[in-house]
Amino acid sequence: MASHSSALPHRHDLITSLNTDHHRLGLNVFLFIVLAHWAEHVAQAVQIYVMGWPVPEARGVLGLPFPWLVTSEWMHYGYALLMLVGLIVLRKGFTGRALTWWTISLGIQVWHHFEHLLLLLQALTGVHLLGRPVPTSIIQLLVPRVELHLFYNAVVFVPMVVAMVLHRRPRPDEQARMNCSCATVPA
């Protein structure tokens, strides 16, 4: 009979594997998800600023056939949570400068996640920040939502990519501490 304690080592083994033997695979899958989301925000910005579409009609690529994706606070929160979990789970595989940059990305995503949690809670309760007619995040009081989320995704993405590049090209002292085979330079 399996006990609850037997589930913990399996979870630990998965996280360990994602930060050692399968770190490159985990990073590549995570990067694919992040790029797909980033592409949606860029497509929406192009629809607004290049094609001149009104904001409600500019829904990215997937939002055109599935408009509820754009208005679903659950979907946006789910992605913010996925990003947060991915940054936390894959962090143990980094060392040195790459770890610093990954941690910067994680710190920014903590705030981004908080903003999405605030939006979700407003959508669920119907009580909006400062009596606004729609769910509104704190920084959205200063910056429109489309531009704000394009900015948030950029400021999380850039240090994440810097971390990945530095991780693939570590200094000898950083590579000596690595527990994965992500480095493209020989030890």
Which radius of gyration do the C-alpha atoms yield?
19 Å
Give the strand tally. Answer: 0
What string gives the helices and strands in order? HHHHHHH
Shape: elongated
End-to-end separation in angstroms reads 45 Å
Number of helices: 7
How much of the sequence is in beta strands? under 5%
Content-based structural category: mainly alpha
Q: Are there runs of 5+ residues with pLDDT below 50, and where?
A: 1-8
The share of residues in helices is 55-70%
User: How would you characterize the largest beta sheet?
Assistant: none
Average the pLDDT over all residues and give the rounded result.
91
Number of domains: 1
Which secondary structure elements does this structure contain, and how are they paired or packed?
Layout: H1 4-18, H2 23-49, H3 68-71, H4 73-89, H5 96-125, H6 145-168, H7 172-177
Helix pairs in contact: 2-6, 4-5, 5-6
